Amino acid sequence: MLHFPEGFHWGSATAAHQIEGNNVSSDWWRREHLTGSTIAEPSLDACDSYHRFREDMQVLVDAGLSMYRFSIEWARIEPEKGFVSQAELAHYRRMVLAARELGLEPMITLHHFTIPQWFEDEGGWRAPDAVERFAFYTQTVLPVLEGVEWVCTINEPNMVAMMAGGDGQGTTLQAFGQPGPDVNVAQTLLEAHRACRAVLAEAGDFRTGWTVATQDFQPEPGCEEIARDYGYHRDAWYLEMAAGDDWVGVQAYTRTKIGPEGPLPIADGAELTLTGWEFYPRALEDGIRLSHEMAPGVPVFVTENGIATDDDTRRVAYMQGALEGLHRAITDGITVEGFLYWSLLDNYEWGSYGPTFGLVSVDRTTFVRTVKPSARWLGDVAAANALAV
User: Fold this and answer.
1) In CA terms, which of 17, 90, 223, 255 is 20 to 30 Å from 110?
2) Which terms are listed as keywords in the entry (predicted)?
3) How many other C-beta atoms lie within 10 A of the C-beta of residue 36?
């Protein structure tokens, strides 16, 4: 058995736009419904988790998991600039209280990709007052966060900057062949993250950080410098900028091999997931080690790790391999606070319901939840705080 440290957190993660449904004031909702949109299908009702959040939390508890990372939706809380919905603040407060009542430790994400339509209309993260607007939003949601310990400021700012550097119009988030990031947007996101942390530090005893999509850029022989240069502004810089934070989130799924000209296609015959990514559980260990290298001493939290597959036995195999690698990193002295599987539900994966990452399936018509064996497997690991090998 591989034993994990006492107090290690086990749970799962979701994002508001991907599960709530009818997030009509967000930039993504508008993109989904534009004439000629490249987005395959709109989110619509998603998983109806806006109304079924307690049911979803109960699924976690019944599976034996003890932490739930979920996001609160800026576009609902501030649907028009300067107008704050007290009803939506109360809704998200009820979510926090429900988690506590059920014995779940909440980790709250303040920004998970979507922004209000009005904010995008004013330039989004390129707007001159973007940092101030995010700080205002942070101040606004403080009543939701009362009693919460773990807060994620911004989810995957590297992906946000890369989408800003590319067309940003519904492109599936892929590890292979990503656009170069907009470095000005990246700097603004960093300033927004720090402004958010400052508001939270003044308001209470929060443990704050941001999460980074680690890409596991692996050089072919002789391409080490090329891989470092390619990867630095796509993930390593964001880990480096976490220095001084309370923790940094690692979100790992697959690897990207780098040759003389940059990213290489996935090798013929490699096992692929429903997103077209290579089945590569060791990406998690590599992401943890990169984080430790770039921000020594900052605790790592695995805030996302998972696989899109319709074969639940492969989901279990993927988690087994990923957790073995995570344990190797801990054995080598790296502090890892917990593991959150992505995702709790088969949800809206930024353009399509096709890639099924969930520990729980959701009927697209009735919204009935069906727990998969992988959820119970992970719950058993959590109950033992150990992994059988």
Assistant:
1) 255
2) Glycosidase, Hydrolase
3) 5
The number of folded domains in the chain is 1
Q: Show the 3-state SS of 115-151.
A: CEHHHHHCCHHHCCCHHHHHHHHHHHCCCCCCCCCEE
Task: State the Cα–Cα distance between residues 245 and 387, nearest whole angstrom.
Answer: 29
Kindly tell me if the per-residue pLDDT of 30 is higher than 60: yes
Whether pLDDT at 170 is above 50: no
Contact status, residue 211 vs residue 156, Cβ threshold 8 Å = yes
Residues 5 and 103: their CA atoms lie apart, in Å, by 20
pLDDT tens by residue, 232-254: 999 999 999 999 999 999 999 99
> How far is the C-alpha of 265 from the C-alpha of 190, rounded, in Å?
31
Positions marked catalytic: 304
Structural domain including 202 reads: 2-387
Predicted local distance difference test score (pLDDT) of residue 71:
98
Q: Which two tokens stand for residue 34?
A: 């534009």
**What CATH number corresponds to the domain at position 325?**
3.20.20.80
pLDDT higher than threshold 80 for residue 112: yes
Q: For residue 177, what pLDDT is reported? A: 59
- Tell me, what amino acid is at 177? G
Q: Give CA angle at 284 (114, 313), nearest 5°.
A: 95
